[in-house]
């Protein structure tokens, strides 16, 4: 039991300094047991959803977490917000170890760490008014802002670009983008220091996505709130996050400053993800003619991930060493401080993919070469 979890009453105290990150995650592991057998079910294995994650988030910073479906992004988000209990590793928030803190011990910081979910439809109670939805975190935490809760809710509605007069409306009266704004207002109600946004725009129309991303960016800049922004799309993170981490099968395989990651990716998987980013999002002078890399095959099962480097079954550079030894996440020579890569045979610091290295998915290749049968 951690007895030292009680935080200072003032919100300003220890609000994360240049020396001390707001959030430090170290060696974080989450394994979900897999049950099998009949008639008595036993644990026969584990989904290694998150398997040894290290990351830090500074106060006010936006940290992007990117990777394909199933690589453990949401699990990471739920561990950080302590909706899940880690199997191993530590989560330190403002200098306090909260890895295994009880609900009671978490109470003082519950308000400071909030989550925004992917689906604005299912994450709002359809039977509650917008006013009730946004004010309930204040009620639960016994917070009475000066001027009253209703005034605060109206203020929050205004901040997120909704009409304060819509206080008494129900979620179904709003569009998808507006509902996500309600979710943002609810997350802001307790003046958090950290928001974990789990694919906050994936469920929205493309035309609405930019508006919500702009709102989150405004919130981050003007209110100085740190974000862990989860996405499978590197394009969105590029606009939002100062630092980006790329995940693959429960591990971070590359992390660094946005510019360093986008201009000088060293891990083959980051190259592959970047090659899928539409060029239209890049400014003219920084848009090299990237070859599109199609990753062959599916992501292996997290129940029995490949030995050594987990990306090796899909990597065009894989050699024997990749199966035998797990590559450590380290700073390669020539890279900026803080740009770490886990690969035995990293790419040259250039974004241009080389022709001979490109693995084409056979089905996609056939499609592109017009080899498919006419309908
Ligand atoms: N409660 C659970 N019990 C068992 N397995 C789980 C549980 N939650 C997640 N998993 C598994 O853990 C792995 C990581 O899942 P997670 O949801 O974190 O991935 P993700 O990166 O968020 O994917 P997506 O992009 O699809 O949201 C997946 O294989 C998933 O099936
Ligand atoms: S370690 Fe080997 S398999 Fe893994 S990404 Fe690097 S080259 Fe590919
Ligand atoms: Mg997810």
TrEMBL record:
Highest taxon of source: Bacteria
Domain ABC transporter, first and last residues per copy: 23-274
Pfam families found in the cross-reference section: ABC_tran, oligo_HPY
Biological processes per GO annotation: peptide transport; transmembrane transport
GO molecular function, one term: ATP hydrolysis activity
Keywords of the record: ATP-binding, Nucleotide-binding, Transport
Classification via NCBIfam families: oligo_HPY, PRK11308.1
Protein family membership: Belongs to the ABC transporter superfamily.
Protein name: Peptide/nickel transport system ATP-binding protein
Gene source species: Streptomyces echinatus
């Amino acid at each position: 039991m951690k007895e030292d979890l009680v935080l200072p009453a003032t919100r300003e105290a220890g609000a994360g300094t240049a020396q001390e990150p707001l959030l430090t995650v170290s060696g974080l592991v989450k394994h979900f047991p897999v049950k099998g057998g009949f008639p008595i079910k036993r644990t026969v294995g584990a989904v290694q959803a998150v398997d040894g994650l290290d990351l830090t988030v500074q106060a006010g910073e936006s940290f992007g977490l990117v990777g394909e479906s199933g690589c453990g992004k949401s699990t990471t988000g739920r561990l950080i917000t302590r909706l899940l209990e880690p199997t191993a590793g530590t989560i330190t928030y403002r200098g306090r170890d909260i890895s295994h803190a009880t609900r009671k011990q978490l109470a003082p910081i519950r308000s400071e760490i909030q989550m925004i979910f992917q689906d604005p439809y299912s994450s709002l109670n359809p039977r509650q008014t917008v006013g009730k939805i946004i004010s309930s975190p204040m009620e639960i935490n016994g917070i009475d802002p000066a001027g009253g809760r209703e005034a605060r809710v109206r203020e929050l509605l205004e901040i997120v670009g909704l009409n304060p007069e819509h206080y008494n409306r129900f979620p179904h009266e709003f569009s998808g983008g507006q509902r996500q704004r309600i979710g943002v207002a609810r997350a802001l109600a307790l003046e958090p220091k950290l928001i974990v946004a789990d694919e906050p725009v994936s469920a929205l129309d493309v035309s609405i996505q930019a508006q919500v991303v702009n709102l989150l960016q405004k919130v981050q800049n003007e209110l100085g709130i740190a974000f862990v922004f989860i996405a499978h799309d590197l394009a969105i993170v590029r606009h939002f996050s100062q630092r980006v981490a790329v995940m693959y099968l429960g591990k971070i395989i590359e992390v660094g400053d946005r510019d360093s990651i986008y201009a000088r990716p060293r891990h083959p998987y980051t190259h592959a993800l970047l090659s899928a980013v539409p060029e239209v999002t890049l400014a003219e002078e920084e848009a090299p003619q990237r070859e599109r890399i199609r990753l062959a095959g599916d992501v292996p099962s997290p129940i029995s991930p490949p030995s050594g480097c987990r990306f090796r079954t899909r990597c065009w550079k894989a050699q024997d060493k990749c199966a035998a030894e797990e590559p450590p996440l380290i700073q390669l020579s020539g890279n900026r401080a803080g740009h770490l890569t886990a690969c035995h045979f990293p790419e040259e610091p250039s974004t241009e993919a080389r022709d001979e290295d490109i693995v084409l998915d056979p089905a996609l290749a056939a499609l592109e070469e017009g080899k498919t049968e006419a309908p």
